């Protein structure tokens, strides 16, 4: 399962095992097709609507008698706001024989009523038949035996259990600095912070007694400590930050998939050419923000952007949204995000091994609900073994060791050295 699986994928995996499906979308209604005024072809249409987990049954068939190859039609009707795609099926071969379709992606947030331009040609058209029954599942609805609320509670409990075994998810986060300010609230919740940087300079993890508290000492922050570890996690840096991070606002609306972020400069200029930035209402509501990584910053534009970092989610933002440079950069072990009913379409921001272990935990809870204690314990043991494996194999990338004894490589190169310089060994 992909690292970017949806929360609903995990919900549906358990429902399929339990043979306890949730509700599904009905067929679209009130479908009409406005034909081209010329032509002599007989064409039949039906329409379906999809979620990420399946496709509905087809709408009532609509027949036309004056179509032509290359002519454009308008297919209209009503669909659910939960639909993520619409398919327009058609055929020239008689009623009930629709064997081609044109897919249409529904904009984020749904549309309710749709009006789709459709050209009778081969461009963008695929072969396929509409299903006889709906499988456009809605994982946020209840099944016959298991409620959606119970499944979300099980997911969050499973994430807590896995955190206790693995110690957390390796991740990064960032904070925008304010000149002279000492304390900041972290984005997401963290089990351990092990590395810190200020404006690219590495900092040490200090003790609270290392900090001078009589008056402000402004400069390049050299040490950081955790002052509060509860619902709100507060970190303190010393010396206090010497500058206010770069800021600005989005110069246009930003989609959840955009990888370029144009912005209008604010009162403070950006210093770092690459690193982390923060979208949203920080510091008033850190939980509502999105952390992004950018690889370049030129002409008021962040480029090669990776969205939804550090336990946040890629989100669509309106023009004027605050954009902040995160010149305080931290790495460590993060608590996983908890989820609530209604978030089936959210990304399940977990490493693949975590998802695999979480499915075992959810299966164990289902077996417990069936009073199958033996199967429940076996699945819990399997989940624990996988969790220990995650902890034991945490390092995806390790430091290289300098070769000795005449060996050559990245660190030691015979002769004049390599692109990265040379290493002199005694």
Kindly describe this structure.
It is a single chain. The chain folds into three domains: 1-23 and 138-168 and 336-394, no CATH class; 25-127, no CATH class; 170-310, no CATH class. The protein is flat. The longest helix is centred in the last third of the chain and has 20 residues, at 373-392. It contains four helices and 26 strands. The protein has 426 residues and is of the alpha+beta class. It has an eight-stranded antiparallel beta sheet with strand order 22-23-19-18-25-20-21-24, with no helix packed on it.
Spell the H/E element sequence: HEEEEEEEEEHEEEEEEEEEEEEEEEEEHH
The total of beta strands comes to 26
Overall average residue pLDDT:
87
- Outline the low-pLDDT stretches: 400-426
Large-scale geometry: flat
Distance between the termini: 49 Å
**From the helix content, strand content and strand pairing, which structural class follows?**
alpha+beta
Radius of gyration, in Å, reads 28 Å
């Amino acid at each position: 399962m992909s690292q970017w699986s949806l929360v609903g994928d995990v919900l549906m995996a358990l429902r399929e095992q339990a043979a306890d499906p949730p509700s599904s979308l009905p067929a679209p209604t009130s479908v009409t097709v406005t034909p081209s005024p010329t032509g002599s072809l007989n064409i039949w249409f039906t329409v379906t609507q999809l979620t990420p987990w399946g496709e509905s049954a087809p709408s009532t068939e609509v027949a036309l008698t004056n179509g032509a190859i290359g002519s454009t039609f308008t297919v209209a009707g009503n669909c659910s706001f939960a639909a993520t795609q619409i398919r327009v099926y058609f055929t020239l071969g008689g009623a009930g024989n629709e064997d081609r379709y044109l897919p249409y992606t529904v904009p984020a947030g749904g549309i309710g009523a749709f009006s789709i331009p459709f050209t009778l040609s081969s461009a963008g058209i695929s072969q396929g038949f509409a299903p006889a029954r709906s499988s456009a599942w809605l994982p946020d609805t209840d099944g016959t035996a298991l409620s959606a609320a119970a499944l979300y509670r099980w997911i969050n409990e499973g994430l807590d259990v896995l955190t206790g075994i693995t110690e957390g998810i390796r991740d990064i986060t960032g904070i925008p600095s304010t000149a002279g300010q000492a304390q900041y609230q972290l984005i997401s919740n963290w089990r351990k912070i092990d590395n810190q940087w200020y404006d690219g300079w590495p900092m040490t993890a200090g003790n609270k007694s290392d900090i001078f508290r009589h008056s402000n000492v402004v400069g390049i922050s050299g040490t950081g400590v955790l002052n509060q570890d509860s619902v709100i996690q507060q970190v303190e840096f010393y010396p206090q930050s010497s500058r206010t991070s770069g800021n600005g606002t989005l110069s246009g609306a930003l989609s959840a998939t955009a990888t370029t972020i144009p912005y209008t400069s604010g009162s403070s200029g950006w210093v770092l050419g690459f690193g982390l930035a923060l979208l949203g209402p920080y510091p008033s509501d850190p939980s509502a923000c999105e952390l992004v990584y950018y690889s370049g910053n030129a002409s008021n534009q962040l480029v090669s952007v990776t969205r939804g970092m550090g336990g946040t989610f890629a989100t669509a933002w309106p023009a004027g949204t605050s954009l902040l440079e995160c010149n305080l950069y931290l790495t460590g072990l993060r608590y996983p995000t908890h989820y609530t009913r209604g978030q089936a379409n959210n990304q399940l921001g977990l490493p693949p091994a975590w998802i695999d272990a979480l499915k075992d935990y959810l299966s164990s809870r289902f077996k417990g609900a069936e009073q199958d204690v033996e199967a429940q314990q076996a699945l819990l043991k399997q989940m624990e073994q996988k969790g220990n494996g995650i902890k034991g194999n945490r390092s995806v990338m390790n430091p290289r060791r300098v070769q000795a004894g005449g060996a050559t490589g990245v660190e030691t190169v015979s002769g004049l050295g390599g692109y990265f310089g040379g290493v002199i060994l005694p």
